[in-house]
UniProtKB/TrEMBL annotation:
<keyword id="KW-0132">Cell division</keyword>
<feature type="transmembrane region" description="Helical">
    <location>
        <begin position="180"/>
        <end position="200"/>
    </location>
</feature>
<feature type="domain" description="FtsX extracellular">
    <location>
        <begin position="56"/>
        <end position="160"/>
    </location>
</feature>
<comment type="similarity">
    <text>Belongs to the ABC-4 integral membrane protein family. FtsX subfamily.</text>
</comment>
<comment type="subunit">
    <text>Forms a membrane-associated complex with FtsE.</text>
</comment>
<feature type="transmembrane region" description="Helical">
    <location>
        <begin position="221"/>
        <end position="249"/>
    </location>
</feature>
<dbReference type="Pfam" id="PF02687">
    <property type="entry name" value="FtsX"/>
</dbReference>
<keyword id="KW-1133">Transmembrane helix</keyword>
<dbReference type="InterPro" id="IPR004513">
    <property type="entry name" value="FtsX"/>
</dbReference>
<feature type="domain" description="ABC3 transporter permease C-terminal">
    <location>
        <begin position="184"/>
        <end position="301"/>
    </location>
</feature>
<keyword id="KW-0131">Cell cycle</keyword>
<keyword id="KW-1003">Cell membrane</keyword>
<dbReference type="InterPro" id="IPR040690">
    <property type="entry name" value="FtsX_ECD"/>
</dbReference>
<feature type="transmembrane region" description="Helical">
    <location>
        <begin position="280"/>
        <end position="299"/>
    </location>
</feature>
<dbReference type="Pfam" id="PF18075">
    <property type="entry name" value="FtsX_ECD"/>
</dbReference>
<comment type="function">
    <text>Part of the ABC transporter FtsEX involved in cellular division.</text>
</comment>
<feature type="transmembrane region" description="Helical">
    <location>
        <begin position="21"/>
        <end position="41"/>
    </location>
</feature>
């Protein structure tokens, strides 16, 4: 097969169906940009889970004298020194516990003032109203329930709280948004495939005389199909290249510069450039293979006529 012939036919096909080719390029670019964005979102959620789950604590809040008057869990009064020692001893014996830190009322008050100093309630609170607590780092954050079962309802314990539960709600929201992006991506990909099939069929119909002559002189099916498949692959590759540009530019202007989220949201560990660059070859490969396969199957029926 002469490469010059294939290249000339690709140029003819792209020029004849310029509007549909442009629609194919835009559809492929948008759908694959969403595909790459969804992959990066999944990586971002996994990175955030690894970062935050490693830092979450289980907190055991102890009863103070104010809780004894208002909270049914502290009906037996404020926590005693013996109860605190027993709780600490039991925690250190548990194999799932990695580290235990004690926070006094004064320390709790200081931390509250640092975080919520501008709150209207901050001025009315005093250190003796704050709760002592044990901050527990687990070897496996998924085993929070073991701590809750062991200490909820115990004398001197007001409540057991798991910070992981708060993070789970955030990650569920992020995963839901990611699934929504995947749904839009699938719809755009379906539209792109329809456009590719229609573009190839229109191109084949406009050149039916040439392909008919080629069949009469004994040209193979692949020889006839090659220009159409290559035409679809080139259009897809251009769309895939645009999708890669969208991802790189989007990462640059949202995280590094422009919006500068990496400096404004320092508590979030954003995915790095390595995660973006590893997605680009996959996007480019998909942008070539998807249109090529769509064109191949679209032309099978035409060549049998």
């Amino acid at each position: 097969m002469r490469p010059q012939f294939v290249l000339s036919e690709i140029g003819v096909g792209l020029r004849r169906n310029l509007t549909m080719t442009f629609a194919v390029i835009v559809s492929v670019a948008l759908s694959l940009a969403l595909f790459g964005g969804s992959l990066l979102m999944s990586d971002q959620v996994s990175t955030m889970k690894g970062y935050w789950y490693d830092k979450v604590n289980v907190s055991i809040f102890l009863c103070n004298k104010h809780d004894a008057e208002q909270d049914v869990h502290c009906a037996k009064g404020a926590v005693t020194e013996d109860q605190k020692k027993q709780i600490l001893s039991d925690l250190r014996k548990m194999p799932i516990v990695e580290k235990v830190a004690y926070e006094s009322q004064d320390e709790a008050y200081k931390h509250y003032k640092e975080q919520f100093g501008n709150s209207p309630l901050a001025g009315s609170l005093t250190p003796d109203q704050m709760q002592e607590s044990y901050r527990i780092k687990l070897k496996d954050p998924q085993k929070y329930q073991v701590i809750a079962t062991a200490f909820n309802g115990r004398d001197g314990v007001q409540s057991v709280q798991d910070q992981k539960g708060i993070l789970d709600n955030l990650f569920q929201l992020l995963n839901l948004m990611n699934r929504g992006a995947l749904g839009v991506m699938a719809l755009m990909l379906f539209v792109a495939l329809l456009l590719i099939v229609n573009t190839v069929r229109v191109s084949a119909f406009s050149r039916r005389r040439e392909t008919g002559i080629m069949r009469l002189v004994g040209a193979s099916g692949f020889y006839i199909q090659a220009p159409f498949i290559a035409e679809a692959a080139v259009a897809g590759l251009i769309g895939g290249g645009l999708a890669c540009v969208f991802l790189v530019v989007g990462r640059y202007f949202t995280i590094d510069h422009g919006m500068d989220l990496s400096h404004k949201l320092t508590l979030i560990n954003f995915v790095g450039w390595d995660a973006v660059l590893t997605k680009l070859p996959l996007i480019l490969a998909t942008s070539v293979l998807m249109p090529a396969l769509a064109a191949f199957f679209a032309l099978r029926k035409y060549l049998k006529v």
